[in-house]
Amino acid sequence: MAPAPKAPADPVRAVAAGLLNLTGLGAGYFLLRRWVLAAACLATTAALLVLALPAEPDGVPAGLLVAYGLLLLVAALDAARRAATTPLRSPVVAMALGIVLLAVPAGGVVAYGAARDDAVEKMLLGRLDDADALVAKAAARTSFAEGRADYTTALARYRELAHDHAGSKAAGLVPDRLDAYYKAVAKPYTDKKDCEAIEPLTYLRTVPGKHMDRGVLGSLATWPDKPLAASLYACGTGKLGAENAGSGGGELGQLLRTFPKSEEAGQVGGALRDAVAARDRSLGGAEPCTATDELRSIGRTADALPDDAGAGVAADVDTAVEKGVYACGVDEFKDKKFGDARKTLADFADTYKNSKHRARAEDIAIAAEIAGLRPAAGSHLPPAGSPGGARMTLVVSNDGPGPVEVLYTGPVTGSVKLAACGSCTMYASESAGRSKACKANRKYPKATIRLPAGSYHFLHKRSADTTAAISDRAAGSEIRPGYSYTQCSYVVRGGGL
Fold first, then answer.
1. What is the phi-psi region of residue 383: left when phi exceeds 0, alpha when psi lies from -120 to 50, beta otherwise?
2. pTM of the predicted structure, to 2 decimals
3. CA-to-CA distance for 273 and 107, rounded, in angstroms?
């Protein structure tokens, strides 16, 4: 039997079948009753849907989409070729149906795009939440330094959202998050922890430009300036007088260099003067030595400030320190710290030669030196003035190979120096010295002291330039009216004086 003749080619049938296959449903093959090919088209579309759904932020790989599109095109051309010579009922209706069914893949593309956009937004909001969690973690640390790495990472993520995903919901939330971020970093400032606040506030000043565009930050870009100036001032003034006030003027120096025109910078000079005045008032209190050390520290801070900002207080510091050194030495004497008192007051006398307290400082230094070997000499401060009345003669002689200084304190205080006795030698024992030293028929270096009656403490000490190691000797003596007295210094072999 001869095959049925082919129908004449009809472009309407070809277009209808092609359009139906472009839907991805294999409808063109269904129209042509090519069931296997129709099933293959449906299976291909189903496989694509399995791979594409649920929608992911990255979407379907581009290569897969290109391959699927090529398959649809091949299927459409094949259906069109077959339909061109195949009789079909109502080809116009089939064409209209194909046009309508094209809305299915078009609508699917739109729906998939929306789903993918939602997935992207969800992903970006997740990144925002991760950044928020880093900020919360950093804020829970005991110090800004410990949380700094997390703060920096969180800021980088906020920047990525704001710059790389500017139209997203997450990017729209970044300004509020930055406000919370600044509050978290600056928490030491709001908690009135002025010194702790300096490092995080200084960090926040580096954010504009370096970590985030000023347009995104808005008013936050300049917000840290005022809090940082206030923290530098409060911390710096709080440290005035501290031993570790910092180099370069410490926080006050940083304030003047960073914010020279600020209100706080204009208050630095007054704060220095107030600090000096406060320590000056405390010199009459229980801790004059501490107050004096603090005055010196304030002076060093003032000297280190830029633009001679502390020059106006230099004279006040010098005056107060002079007063403080004397008060400190007297206090050390009263506290039985005789070695410290002697050094402090001797240094005072050497440094402040025009001070009205110099002579008094020298007397107390002498009494403190004697009290170092004879504590009874430090039971009270030496008298400030000299008593009237008769004075007795005390002749002191040196029967020893080196120079001697004789210190005394009692109703009056003082010292005399005796030159070395060139012809004198050491004695074998104290008994030999007592029986042989300072004989009347020999000449010795000597000095005469006139003393009012009373109880005295004496210290005979060899000069520091004596080569031999000779011990000093302290003793007490009573000076009575109507008598004259002598003292003799000699050296016993073995180091005794």
1. beta
2. 0.72
3. 80
CB contact at 8 A, 332 and 341: yes
**Do residues 139 and 187 make contact, with C-beta atoms less than 8 angstroms apart?**
yes
Query: Is there a contact between 274 and 312 (Cβ–Cβ < 8 Å)?
Result: no
- Pair 456, 409: CB distance under 8 Å: yes
Residue 233 scores a pLDDT above 80: yes
Residue type, 130: D
The single-letter code of the amino acid at 318 is D
Residues in the chain: 497
Give SS3 for 262: coil
Q: Which amino acid is at 231?
A: S
d(CA 95, CA 22): 12
Residue owning tokens 């008593």:
387
Contact assessment for residue 155 and residue 95, using Cβ atoms and an 8 Å cutoff: no
* Two structure tokens written together for 422: 């060139």
417, 459 contact by CB (below 8 A): no
Q: How confident is the model over 331-342, as a mean pLDDT?
A: 96
User: Long-range contacts of range 310-317, CB-CB < 8 Å, 24 or more positions apart?
Assistant: 310/249, 310/268, 310/269, 310/272, 312/269, 312/272, 312/273, 313/269, 313/272, 313/273, 313/276, 316/273, 316/276, 316/277, 316/280, 317/276
Q: How far is CA 481 from CA 292, 435, 452, 453, in A?
A: 44, 27, 8, 6
Secondary structure, 3-state, 117-176: HHHHHHHHHHHHHHHHHHHHHHHCCCCHHHHHHHHHHHHHHHHHHHHHCCCCHHHHHHHH
Distance of CA 343 to the CA centre of its chain: 37
* Lowest-pLDDT choice from 105-114, 139-148, 228-237: 105-114
Instruction: Find out whether 404 and 491 touch, Cβ atoms under 8 Å.
Output: no
Rounded mean pLDDT of 14-19?
54
Amino acid identity at 133: A
Alpha-carbon dihedral angle through residues 341, 347, 351, 355, given to the nearest 10 degrees: 30
